[in-house]
Amino acid sequence: MNELITKQLLFNFFEGQTTFMQRKLIEQWLEDSANEETYYRCLDEWERGRPQVLVDPEKAQQEYDRFLAGGALPEKRSEEMFLGNKRLPVFHRSWIALLTAASLIFGLASLFRDDLMYKTFESPTGHFTSFFLCDSTEVTLNSNSVLKVPRFGFGKEVRQVWLEGEAEFKVTHQKDNLRFQVLMGYGYRIEVLGTEFNAFSRARGKRVFLEKGKVKLNLPKGQEVYLSPGNYFTADAKGSFQVITPDEPLAITAWKEQTFYFEDVTLTEVVEQINERFAAHIKIADRELAARKIGGIYQAKDPDALLQILSAMFEMDIIRHDEEIELRSPKNPDL
C-alpha cells in the first residue's frame, strides 16, 4: 500500500472524516486498478466492524448483478447519507458511486465476497475452452472444469489461480520474474516462472505433466518436488505420489483433441475418465467386467459415442436408469 494511503486513512474516508486533499489523494490512488483489491478488503473490514449499517438484501442483489454485468451504477441524488444517527457527506464522483454499491454488496458479507473478488471460468460438459489471463498466460480448460482468478488482476507479489478439474497452461514470463501459482486444493500448489504444463485436480488425485520449462510442486506435508520437461507427477487421493517419464505423453494431453487414449488400462479407469470429462454417472456392476483392459485411441464428443464402442468390444449391456448408467456383463441365457 502507498505510504500515504493507510488503512486508517481509508477508514476515515469511509466515515466522511477526510479533508479535500486526502479525498483527492485517495481518488488518484484508485486510478491504479492494482489498488482496488486493497480498497475493497479495507471496505469489507470497515463494514464488518459496524453492524449498525442497514442493508436491503433485495436491493443489494440487484446492484450486485448490475455491477458484475458491467452496467451503469445509479448516482446518488442526495447530498447526504446516514450511518446510524450520523450524517456523512456524499461526493458526486464515479468511484463514490462504486463505493455506495460496494457498501451494499459487502453488507451481505461472505455471500457475495468470493463472486466479487474472483472471476470464474467454466468449461461446459463435452467441450473445452481456451482464453487468456490478464498477464497473457494462455489457458485451455478441459470439459467439466473450473478456474478461478482474481477479478481485479494479479497483485505485485504473485500471480495466483485456483483449479478444479484439468487445464493446460502456457505461462507468460514477466520481466520482474513474478511467480505464477496454481492452487489445486488439499495443500497442492504448482509454482512456475514461465513454462507449459498440464494440471489435473479432481477427487481421485492430482497430476502434473510438464511440457516445457521447470516447475516446483508444493505438497500437503511440506514436501517439494521439482519437475523437468517430460516429467509426469501423479498423486492419489491418499497422498501417495510418484514422478515418471511416460513413453507416450499423448495419453495425458489427448483431451485437447476431444480424444481418449487408453494404453492397457482397466474398464474402471475408462469409466472414471468418462465420468470426469462429461460429468456422467456411470458405474460397473461386476468386478470381472471392471478388471478387463483396453487399449487404443478413440474420439468421442459425448459419453454415448464411447459407450457404444465399449459395448461392442466387451459385449456388455448398457442399462440406463433415471440418474445413472450401469454397465453389466450379459446374462448367459443357457443358465
Write up what this structure looks like.
- This is FecR domain-containing protein.
- Keywords: Membrane, Transmembrane, Transmembrane helix.
- With 335 residues, the chain is of the alpha+beta class.
- Helix content is 29%, strand content 33%.
- It folds into 3 domains: 102 residues, no CATH class; 130 residues, Jelly Rolls, CATH 2.60.120.1440; 71 residues, Phage tail protein beta-alpha-beta fold, CATH 3.55.50.30.
- Strands 3, 4, 5, 6, 7, 8, 9, 10, 11, 12, 13, 14 and 15 form a 13-stranded mixed sheet that branches. The protein has a 3-stranded mixed sheet with strand order 17-20-19.
- Helix 1 crosses helix 3 and helix 4 packs across helix 5.
- The protein is elongated, with a radius of gyration of 26 Å.
- The N and C termini lie far apart (78 Å).
- About 10% of the residues have low confidence.
Which range best describes the helical content: under 10%, 10-25%, 25-40%, 40-55%, 55-70% or over 70%? 25-40%
Would you tell me the structural class of the helices and strands?
alpha+beta
The CATH class name of the largest domain reads: Mainly Beta
Q: How many strand units?
A: 20
Gyration radius, in Å: 26 Å
Q: Please report which band the strand proportion falls in: under 5%, 5-15%, 15-25%, 25-35%, 35-45% or over 45%.
A: 25-35%
Q: What's the story with the biggest beta sheet?
A: 13 strands, mixed
Poorly predicted runs are 51-57, 75-97, 107-111
Order of helices and strands: HHHHEEHHEEEEEEEEEEEEEHEHEHEHEE
Query: Overall 3D geometry?
Result: elongated
**Could you please say which CATH topology of the largest domain applies here?**
Jelly Rolls
Number of helices: 10
Number of self-contained structural domains: 3
What is the correct CATH architecture of the largest domain?
Sandwich
Mean pLDDT: 80
- N-C termini distance: 78 Å
